[in-house]
Amino acid sequence: MTSQTIGFIGLGKMGGAMALNLLNAAPGLIVADVMSDPVKRLTDAGAASAPHPRAIAEQCDMVLLCLPSAKEVRCVFDGEDGLLAGARDGLTVVDTTTLDRSEALAFADELAERGVAYADCPVSGAPFRAEAGTLTVMFGGTAEAFAKARPLLDTFGQDVVHAGPIGAGQAMKAINNIVYNVNIAAISEALPLAMVVGLDPDVVAKVLTTASGRSFASEYFIPRMIERRFDFDFTLNGAYKDVLNVQQMAVETRASTPVINAMISSYQAAIAQGYGDQPKSAMLKVYEKALGVEFKAHETSEVESGGNSGSAA
Question: DSSP string spanning 206-226?
C-alpha cells in the first residue's frame, strides 16, 4: 500500500488493465481518459475520476501514463487543462507509453524545468498479461525514482527492471522488440518455404511451436497465421517506431546490424505492399506472394501449439 495519491491517464486495453491492478496498491487512485467507458470500468472498481489531466496533477504525487504515442503524451501535458497546468513541484510522471528514446529525453528535460520529475517506463506483454499483472516493466530514471515507483510497478509487472537513467527504458524496450521482430521476419520467410518443399502446414506449426526453433513469436503468431487471422495485435505502421528507435541508436554508436537491417527490409516491404494496417505477422504475405503459396491449416485438422521443453539444438 502507498500513502501517495496516484493518478493514471490512458485506460486502453493495456492501461485499463494496469490501472485495475494498481488499485490494489493505491486504493485512492484517480483516473482519466478521453473515453467514458473505460473510466466507468475503473470507477466501478473503486477508483475516483478526474475530468482532465490538470485536475489529476493538482491532486496527485505521482501520475502514470499509458498512451498510444508521443502525440497523445504531448496532448496530456499541454493546454489549460493539461497536466503541466496543474503540476506542483515534486510531482513525478512515470510514462509507460512506448516512445522514441529521444522523445523521452526531451520530455524529461521539459518537465524538469517545471519542477516535475519524469521517468520513461515502457512495458512488454499483451493485454492478457496486463490483466494478469505479469508484464515486463523497464524503468528509465534515477535509483531514487525507481524505489519510489517500484511498489506500484509490482502490481502489474512480474519482471520489473531498472534499465538505467532516463531514456534507458525506451532503449531496452526497442532492443527487446527488435529481437522479437527479427523472429517474426524469420518465421514469415520460413513458412512459405516449408510449403514449397511440400511440408504439411500443421506439422510445421507443431514443430516450430515445440522444438528448438520455438520462441514467443512462433508460439503467439503461428497459430494465428495458420488460421489466417491478421486482424489483431499492433499494426506494422504503429510499431514502426521501434525500428526508428534502433536505427537511431545504431547510427549514434556506429554499430553493425546486418540481421536487424534484413528484418527492416522485410518490415518495409510489407508496408510498401499495403499491409501496414495489419499486424507484424503480415510480413508472411510478402513471401507467400513471392512463392505463390499460402500457409493455412487443413480444414479437417487442428493446430496444436506450446508444449515440451526439449533440449537445445
Answer: HHHTTSTT--HHHHHHHHHHH
